[in-house]
Design brief:
heterodimer, A: alpha+beta, MetI-like fold, 3 domains, eight-stranded antiparallel sheet, two-stranded antiparallel sheet, 14 helices, 10 strands, about 55% helix, elongated, B: mainly alpha
């Protein structure tokens, strides 16, 4: 068998190629997943940050708050300072300690503010940048060094939290110690601030009515187009099909005028009543119904059943996948629609806001508290994400069917 | 379908129908419609402004003629009498019910319901729980019982919700409003017309009018399609025509419109702001569409390999399409913040990293993503492509799953590499899907509105130097801020024409495909 080694080699090469190929595939997929998820992670953690934390630079993903410690029954800010063995937590115990700003003659960039009482004058001086500065023996945490006194200043005395070390630093520039902590109160605050709960329930009500109404009209119409013969049916269906591609913005002005004429403008009804029918939904139901075998209904016909009964007892139970697909489509459409509420609902009428409108208003005014804005966005995506988690199949199916048309 | 003709002998004769009463009702309907026609045409009692008056008059005149004819047809029991009578009665019933609801403020009453719903929405959870119980029915030993429990829980939840929303006081209030003649009269008319329609729809009427199966089907057809058709005509076809008409007028939306012919359209071509918006949207489409389509194609090819975990990735990519454009854009607005945003921070860190590897002195670019006129449109592209990518991926994936697997198996035997299989099987066979994805993304891109509107707020959505102005934003500003609704309608129709042209190209391309594959 002279071929055996090459065969084995070939197999090994194939295996290697598969491993590299799959590894590469996962790497790309994970990379894109990170790009897709990062804004949502940023939103979720941003929702539980403090306002100042959202403006921090460099930005951090996790929510951080300044650490406080209770000392003698008093809440004190905790700092992170060097006590000779790395950064440790400390509290400020005394301010206004007379100090000097000492600079390193060998490295003028390095400046240490330190109390004068821990420095002894050597009597000599150094010339730095054309200035003659006196030098001191300074007892720093890490040891004594000879430094030049540039000018006088004041420092704070810091006491180590978990020990008895003492160090000095300018309180204003000392690094505060931080801990990761979520501000759950942001959610209740944003609800109270902007009546976001009202916007949430309004959106729910509008969505429920639009989904239920569209399902009803689409099932009825889809059945008529699929199974009942009446004059002009096919032309009418063609008109429906064509209307799917009409952009909504062409209708927005006459629809607004119609709402004004009927006195519905600025009411929640204006977000519901014009949207109880959907040409795409009718088309979807018709396509599904037309594929149902005719024998199923013929027996019922011979028994003298009416069409309405046949529709609701034979067709509808067979069509749950199509109905669920249409329901998810309408759900997203109703939940996320923005331009129509923007046109129809008055900005001053916060009672009739839907979530998209409330968020847009919040985004325009919450410049100084993005954390509350993020909390609002979290509330707005909570319901769609939950529905998606349970009905993922139908969302995907909806996209797939829209591609087949 | 002829086999479906009832074989039983009629048990009820035509005498069972109150023919005299029905004939009387037909006469009342005809007289009523004629009176209404005259009232609208000569503005007696009913004042309808402008062009609408003539539309109404024509519609009423036709209905009157039909109503008069239906008297004769009913008297002679011609089946056409049943159809026309049913049609008129149905319309009168719907119209009456609408007038009643409008007079009783039922349509705008949804505001009150929404306020109550805010306090009792939690009761919806009962219904949701009931729905979940139903989901477990198949796994239990007695599915029928569990399903019944599920159904009654859902019904109970709805009942509790409606009662806590004030259904009973609401009904009492409605009953009180019924005493007003503007509510009461339409209601009575609607009830009589509805009853008459119901009677005409019955088998008894079908036999009395000697209707055959085919003719009976027409009634059913119009009845089933009617909820949809009424919506289609009122909220789509009607407004569409009105929109076209408005585009030929100079109208502020409040006072009388004046007809100006094609003037609005002529002005479009010399309006530098509109032309800027067109240029913006074309640049936007040329970048944002490929940016959301091409990665989608590759991601779908990767997802289509039957490796574990693909469903999780698909779900993750789809999340942005679920989240809603307003929330998503607001998140990106913060990410793109020039001073504290993660995007600029990321650029800084990557530049530093790159500099430390190569040893080169690099200055990290820190663009003003929102307020810089050269990058503002680019920010919009980022948000659009990011949100559209997953949707396109799922579309491509669906298309790929329709490709015959045996082709791949044959290629495998020939030892084709993954890249070759992708290039010579997937891409060519996926062309119909690709054409659809590109068309769909292009149409969405042409209607750009939300992203720049939210990114630029509280500044005007035009962006710095009109750099993010899209035709829809221009339309919105003209229609609802400057109240030039005629001109705005012309903008809408110009955009519609563009979208229509792209759709036509799409259908032409799809047709090509059909010829090739045949």
């Amino acid at each position: 068998m002279p071929d055996a080694p090459t065969q084995q080699q070939d197999r090994r090469r194939r295996l290697l190629r598969t491993i590299v190929g799959r590894g590469g595939a996962y790497l790309i997929l994970i990379g894109f997943a990170a790009i897709m998820l990062f804004p949502f992670v940023y939103m979720a953690t941003g929702a539980v940050k403090t306002p100042s934390d959202t403006f921090r630079y460099p930005p951090k993903v996790l929510p951080r708050v300044p650490l406080v410690a209770e000392i003698d029954g008093e809440e004190r800010e905790v700092f992170s300072l060097d006590f000779g063995s790395g950064e440790e937590r400390a509290v400020l115990v005394e301010t206004g300690v007379d100090a000097g700003l000492f600079v390193d003659p060998d490295d003028p960039e390095r400046a240490v503010p330190w109390p004068l009482e821990l420095a002894t004058e050597t009597g000599s001086s150094v010339n730095m940048e054309g200035e003659s500065l006196p030098t001191y023996e300074v007892e720093l945490v890490a040891g004594t060094e000879t430094l030049a006194l540039q000018r006088n200043t004041a420092v704070g005395r810091f006491q180590q939290l978990d020990g008895d070390g003492v160090t000095y630093a300018v309180p204003r520039t000392a690094t505060p110690a931080e801990t990761i902590e979520a501000q759950w109160g942001n959610f209740s605050e944003v609800i109270g601030l902007r009546d976001l709960d009202r916007a949430l329930t309004n959106t729910m009500l509008v969505t429920i009515l639009v989904v239920a109404g569209t399902l009803f009209t689409s099932i009825m119409g889809g059945y008529a187009f699929a199974r009942v013969r009446f004059p002009g049916r096919d032309k009418m269906f063609l008109a429906y099909l064509g209307s799917i591609m009409i952009p909504f913005i062409v209708l927005i002005i006459p629809l607004f005028q119609l709402m004004v004429g009927l006195g519905w403008v600025n009411s929640i009804g204006s977000l519901v009543w014009p949207f109880l029918f959907n040409a795409y939904g009718t088309f979807l139901m018709r396509q599904f119904f037309i594929a149902i075998p005719k024998d199923l209904e013929e027996a019922a016909f011979i028994d003298g059943a009416k069409r309405g009964r046949i529709l609701w007892t034979i067709f509808v139970p067979l069509s749950w996948p199509a109905i669920a697909t249409l329901a998810t489509f309408m759900f997203l459409y109703a939940w996320n629609s923005f331009i129509w509420p923007l046109v129809s609902i008055n900005v001053a009428n916060a009672d009739n806001f839907v979530l998209t409108l409330a968020l847009q208003q919040l985004g325009g005014t919450a410049g100084e508290s993005p954390n509350l804005l993020f909390a609002g966005i979290v509330l707005s995506v909570l319901v769609p994400f939950t529905v998606f988690a349970f009905a993922q199949r139908y969302f995907v199916e909806n996209v797939a069917t829209s591609g087949i048309k | 379908m002829d086999t479906l003709t009832p074989t039983r002998t009629p048990e009820v004769s035509s005498q069972d129908l109150p023919l005299a009463v029905m004939l009387g009702w037909r006469i009342i309907v005809a007289l009523g419609l004629i009176a209404a026609t005259i009232a609208v045409a000569f503005a007696v009692g009913i004042e309808v402004e402008g062009t609408l008056r003539w539309v109404f008059t024509a519609a009423l005149a036709i209905s009157s003629a039909l109503a008069v004819l239906s008297i004769q047809w009913t008297r002679t029991l011609i089946h056409r009498g049943r159809a026309v009578g049913f049609f008129l009665d149905y319309l009168i019933a719907v119209g009456g019910a609408f007038a009643m609801a409008q007079a009783a403020d039922l349509f705008v009453g949804l505001d009150t319901a929404a306020a109550r719903f805010n306090e009792s929405a939690l009761f919806l959870l009962i219904t949701v729980v009931g729905w979940f119980i139903g989901g477990f029915a198949e796994r239990t030993s007695n599915p029928a019982l569990v399903r019944r429990i599920s159904r009654s829980t859902m019904a109970a939840g709805l009942a509790v919700l409606l009662i806590s929303m004030g259904l009973l006081p609401g009904l009492l209030e409605f009953a009180r409003r019924l005493t007003g003649p503007s509510v009461f009269i339409p209601l009575v008319v609607a009830l009589i017309a509805g009853y008459s329609a119901r009677l005409l729809w019955s088998d008894r009427a079908a036999r009395a009018f000697n209707t055959d199966q085919r003719q009976a089907e027409v009634l059913d057809g119009f009845f089933f399609v009617s909820p949809n058709l009424i919506g289609f005509l009122t909220f789509l076809a009607g407004p569409l025509l009105v929109s076209l008409f408005i585009s030929f007028t100079d109208w502020d939306g409040l006072t009388e419109a004046s007809f100006v012919g094609l003037e609005n359209y002529g002005r479009l071509f010399s309006d530098s702001v509109f032309l800027t918006s067109l240029r913006n949207i074309l640049v936007f489409g040329l970048v944002a569409v490929p940016a959301s389509v091409i990665p989608g194609l590759f991601l779908a090819a990767l997802l289509n390999s039957k490796l574990p975990g693909m469903k999780v990735f698909r779900a993750i990519y789809f999340l942005p399409s679920i989240a809603g454009v307003v929330g998503v854009t607001l998140i990106w607005k913060n990410l793109l913040n020039a001073t504290v945003g993660f995007v600029n921070y990321g650029i800084l860190r990557v530049t530093e990293l790159f500099g430390s590897i190569t040893g080169a002195e690099l200055e990290a670019a820190q663009p003003l993503w929102i307020s810089g006129s050269s990058v503002a449109l680019f920010s919009v592209m980022i948000v659009f492509a990011w949100q559209q990518l997953g949707f396109n991926t799922v579309l491509f994936l669906a298309g790929m799953q329709g490709i015959d697997q045996s082709l791949y198996e044959a290629a495998d035997i020939d030892g084709a590499s993954a890249w070759n299989r992708f290039r010579s099987i997937t891409v060519p066979l996926l062309k119909p899907t690709t054409v659809f994805v590109v068309t769909n993304a292009t149409i969405l891109a042409l209607q750009l509105f939300n992203e720049p509107f939210i990114l630029q707020a509280p500044s005007p959505p035009n962006g710095p130097n009109n750099s993010t102005l899209s035709p829809v934003i221009y339309l919105y500003q003209n229609a609802f801020q400057r109240f030039r609704q005629g001109y705005a309608s012309a903008v809408a129709w110009a955009l519609f024409a563009l979208i229509f042209a792209i759709t036509l190209i799409y259908f032409a391309r799809q047709d090509d495909e059909g010829v090739l594959s045949a």
